[in-house]
Design goal:
The complex is a heterodimer of chains A (261) and B (240).
Chain A (H helix, E strand, L loop, with lengths): L2 H13 L2 H30 L11 H6 L2 H20 L11 H8 L3 H35 L10 H26 L3 H10 L5 H8 L7 H6 L15 H25 L3
Chain B lengths: L1 H16 L2 H23 L7 H25 L6 H8 L5 H35 L11 H24 L2 H20 L9 H6 L12 H25 L3
The chains are: A mainly alpha (261), B mainly alpha (240).
């Protein structure tokens, strides 16, 4: 079985999980819905001549403040891609786990994990390519001519938001390899994907907190929305988050290779 | 009927005590209370008063009681345990009622323990920073915070009963309360009717003074009752 076959198998397996479909729907529809509400609020504030009613007046910020909802979808996708393998079936049908079948069919453990990572990256990338341009167009269309001139760097921030989702999904995947159960990674990562998170709290205690993966990564897209001072520069932040992701994936590979399934 | 309900509730309490995940959620919440209040009290953004510090920690602690509520119901569906439950208590009103009561008992204990430990931590942490501790009367807002923590977890319980799965119920409840609510609050005043914002008036003042703590509590209870009665109706009609 070639690596390409393994990836094809993983894509089919992950994309047909009900939880993965819901996660993709959340990643796509969540930001669009929040953008819609945000943009309508911004337009109302601008038209009534009271822009101080909302936290921002630019349609672009209406989009980027909706990014955390998509992060939740990316987290869920990364978690279920691995967590689904370890769910025990009902005792009436033998009580087995899918991981046994997976590793019987593909006895190459690194290959399986790499194929899962590629699958998650592809699915999140497709979702990001759809939802971020759609949200930007929607917000621009709703706020229309009342909008202040667009700030610089919309393209790089859009790409940054997409990369943030990709890396978050990969971190979720790696953490779930450690825990072999989706519950703990879901709680920890969803709690921490809020804009006011445990990481933000830590950032008040120590400046080192800006090197945490989520705070470092958020600097790629959040701009002024970030809830703390002296964040890293966008590119540095992205590199820091990518380093975390690579490290966690390497650790997850080592664990997955050495542990009994 | 009361006897059978009491028996079912006792059984549910025992069941929850035997679940490692529930114990992990309880002790995780208490541990999080120590960590978060300690961090808040030590940081410059935290308030200078133990009660205020603990109230600032409540948004983080709600993840704990939500997990507790979701686990209380969701684990029944993980491995067909529900079949055993319904064979022992073949009353589809008694089972959800008993689950709710058992959850509320556990959540109340968890919330009170977490907030008490948080108060102690905040007091110690503030003392090490030489902040004079002001105490004026009984901290009723902490009681409100405990009630809020138990009730927001009830929302998780109701959603778990409706969705019949731990992970999806966790995702929906946590992202509604922790992600969607702050994002919506930045832009629309109607966000005050979301369950966590309305219930939050039990321990926080409302700057807009549109809802009072009592009406906020009613709004939160309304969310719980609507989702919960949907869940009970589905539970009575669906195959287990």
């Amino acid at each position: 079985m070639t690596f390409f076959d393994t990836v094809a198998a993983e894509i089919r397996k992950t994309a047909t999980l009900p939880a993965a479909i819901v996660a993709l729907a959340v990643t796509v529809l969540g930001p669009v819905a929040i953008t819609l509400i945000n943009a309508v609020g911004v337009r109302a504030a601008l038209r009534s001549g009271r822009p101080e009613l909302t936290a921002y007046t630019s349609p672009v910020e209406a989009v980027f403040s909706a990014v955390p909802i998509g992060t939740v979808g990316a987290v869920v996708l990364g978690v279920v891609a691995v967590g689904g393998e370890y769910t025990t079936n009902s005792a009436r049908i033998g009580g087995g786990r899918q991981i046994t079948t997976t590793l019987t069919a593909t006895p190459d453990r690194l290959g399986v994990l790499a194929a899962k990572a590629v699958t998650v990256v592809l699915l999140v990338a497709v979702a990001a390519l759809v939802v971020i341009p759609a949200s930007l167009a929607l917000a621009g269309g709703i706020v229309g001519t009342d909008a202040p001139p667009a700030p610089e760097g919309v393209l790089s921030r859009s790409v940054g938001a997409g990369i943030y989702w990709l890396l978050t999904a990969l971190i979720a995947l790696a953490v779930t390899v450690f825990t072999r159960n989706g519950i703990v990674p879901i709680i920890v990562l969803v709690v921490n994907s809020a804009l006011v998170s445990v990481s933000v709290l830590l950032s008040h205690l120590t400046p080192l907190a800006r090197f945490l993966p989520d705070l470092a990564g958020m600097s790629m897209f959040a701009g002024d929305l970030l809830a703390f001072d002296d964040a890293l520069a966008p590119v540095t932040g992205g590199l820091v988050m990518a380093t975390w992701t690579a490290g966690l994936l390497a650790l997850a590979s080592a664990v997955f290779l050495r542990r009994d399934a | 009927m009361i006897r059978s309900y009491a028996g079912a509730t006792a059984a549910e309490l025992t069941k929850l005590f035997g679940l490692p995940a529930v114990l992990a959620a309880v002790f995780g919440t208490i541990g999080a209370a120590v960590a978060v209040t300690g961090a808040l009290a030590a940081s410059p953004v935290g308030a200078n008063e133990p009660v205020a510090v603990v109230l600032q920690a409540v948004p983080y602690l709600q993840a704990g009681t939500i997990s507790l509520g979701v686990l209380a119901v969701g684990t029944e569906y993980a491995d067909g345990q529900l079949h055993t439950t319904l064979r022992c208590v073949p009353d589809r009103l008694a089972v959800p009622a008993a689950k709710t009561l058992a959850y509320l008992a556990w959540a109340a204990v968890t919330a009170v323990a977490a907030l008490a430990v948080g108060l102690l931590t905040a007091r110690i942490a503030l003392a090490t920073r030489d902040v004079p501790v002001v105490t004026d009367g009984f901290p009723w807002k902490v009681v409100g915070a405990a009630a809020y923590l138990a009730l927001i977890g009830l929302l998780g319980l109701a959603l778990a009963a409706l969705l019949r799965a731990v992970v999806s119920a966790l995702v929906v409840t946590l992202s509604l309360v922790l992600v969607a609510s702050p994002v919506l609050d930045a832009v629309t005043p109607h966000a005050r009717y979301l369950p966590d914002r309305a219930g939050g008036l039990l321990y926080l003042p409302d700057p807009a003074r549109i809802l009072t703590p009592a009406t906020g509590l009613l709004v939160l209870l309304g969310w719980v009752v609507v989702i919960g009665s949907g869940a009970v109706a589905a539970f009575r009609r669906r195959d287990a």
